[in-house]
Design goal:
This protein has twelve helices and 16 strands. With 337 residues, the protein is α/β, with parallel strands linked by helices. Bound molecules: nicotinamide-adenine-dinucleotide. It is an enzyme of class 1 (oxidoreductase). It catalyses: D-glyceraldehyde 3-phosphate + phosphate + NAD(+) = (2R)-3-phospho-glyceroyl phosphate + NADH + H(+); D-glyceraldehyde 3-phosphate + phosphate + NADP(+) = (2R)-3-phospho-glyceroyl phosphate + NADPH + H(+).
Length: 337
């Protein structure tokens, strides 16, 4: 059994912990948090040993009536691998800790690509992570773009990608984010940083991205234009995507017109936390004009990186090849709407 530590038990960390628990070859050794809050209480309720991420604040947990298993150092020392799911920039500060205990580490998309040996997307470059000490699971947006670009590159070749990312202002729990009543070019500079991030997965890709932020919390929306190296029929692209396990093609008959109904569907389907691990591509939007492909896709920012973290654990430790790992992760989580 792979003993997994999770440092940072927030939006991503708690989802990764639940997903690890569902794997036949993994165990949650413990989760680390900086302070007691509702998520700390839930971790205890779920039976995850809770470790104090910051020694000076460890007393706060006892004061809140929460039992601590020990300092985060004990957890890192005992683990086979650590998933760092702390806020952007904190992962970089934690790198020294992981090196001190010689524990391989996964970081999240908020960290710089320069921090790690390789950036990771299971569908696109699984093998690059094998044996690496520091691996970054790319952001929700980069994951969503990579899953679409990988099959297109393999099947047709990609000349150029142009994507406009309409980004949610904050996650549902982020009460300090916005905008509340505005539409922001964000970042206002063009191209946005997202394109170079996708290039950490595909080194010879030509991609330009533009970003916006809107008053929404549920999902991101991508408007995508890919210039392929050959003229392709839209129906052929639909078939190609239908074979991809982490691409959900929203059929016209479902009458899902946006991220609100998508989340409603996920709730009706009994998904934990209404998570949608797959890219949600509107099937009708898949169109071609000559060699230009167009589509709209919704990306559930809080969960699409979760199966990627699970696969990255196996990739780093050399426990399975890409196909085996993706299949196990998909089956155990119930991926495939
Ligand atoms: P979050 O704020 O929801 O959770 C982070 C958790 O880490 C919190 O519980 C916080 O208390 C804890 N923490 C803070 N400092 C810590 C420390 N020193 N040691 C241990 N724990 C600490 O953040 P999140 O949204 O889960 O984001 C985590 C990472 O995942 C970031 O790199 C982010 O960019 C990336 N990411 C986030 C999303 C998203 O939509 N939320 C999507 C993809 C990737």
């Amino acid at each position: 059994m792979i003993q997994v530590a999770i440092n940072g038990y927030g939006t991503i960390g708690k989802r990764v912990a639940d997903a690890v628990r569902q794997q036949p070859d993994m165990e949650v050794l413990g989760v680390a948090k900086t302070r007691p809050n509702f998520e700390a209480e839930t971790a205890i309720d779920k039976g995850f040993p809770l470790y104090a991420a910051i020694e000076e604040r460890a007393d706060q947990f006892a004061e809140a009536g929460l039992e601590i298993a020990g300092p985060v150092e004990d957890l890192i020392d005992a683990a086979d691998i650590v998933v760092d799911a702390t806020p952007s920039g904190i992962g970089a500060e934690n790198k020294e800790l992981y090196e001190e205990y010689d524990t391989p580490a996964l970081y999240q998309g908020g960290e710089d690509a320069a921090l790690v040996d390789t950036s990771f997307n299971a569908r696109s470059n699984y093998e690059d992570a094998t044996g690496a000490d520091h691996v970054r699971v790319v952001s929700c947006n980069t994951t969503g773009l990579s899953r679409v670009i990988a099959p297109l590159r393999e099947e047709y070749g990609v000349e150029k990608v142009r994507a406009t990312l309409v980004r949610r202002g904050g996650d549902p729990g982020q009460t300090n984010r916005g905008p509340i009543n505005d539409i922001l070019p964000n970042p206002v500079t063009i191209p946005s940083h997202h394109g170079p991030d996708v290039e950490t997965i595909f080194d010879d890709l030509d991609i330009d991205t533009l970003g916006m932020k809107v008053p929404a919390t549920l999902m991101h929306m991508h408007s995508l234009n890919v210039t392929l190296e050959e003229e392709v029929d839209a129906a052929e692209v639909r078939e190609l995507f239908a074979d991809e396990s982490r691409l959900f093609l929203i059929p016209e008959r479902m009458d899902i017109d946006g991220s609100g109904k998508l989340k409603e569907y996920a709730m009706d389907a009994g998904r934990p936390r209404a998570d949608i691990w797959e890219n949600c591509i509107w099937e009708e939007s898949i169109s071609t004009v000559g060699s230009d492909l167009y589509l709209f896709q919704g990306i559930h920012q809080e969960s699409d990186v979760v199966p990627e973290n699970i696969d990255a654990i196996r990739a780093v430790l050399g426990e399975a090849d890409a196909g085996e790992s993706i299949e196990t992760t998909n089956e155990t989580l119930g991926i495939g709407l």
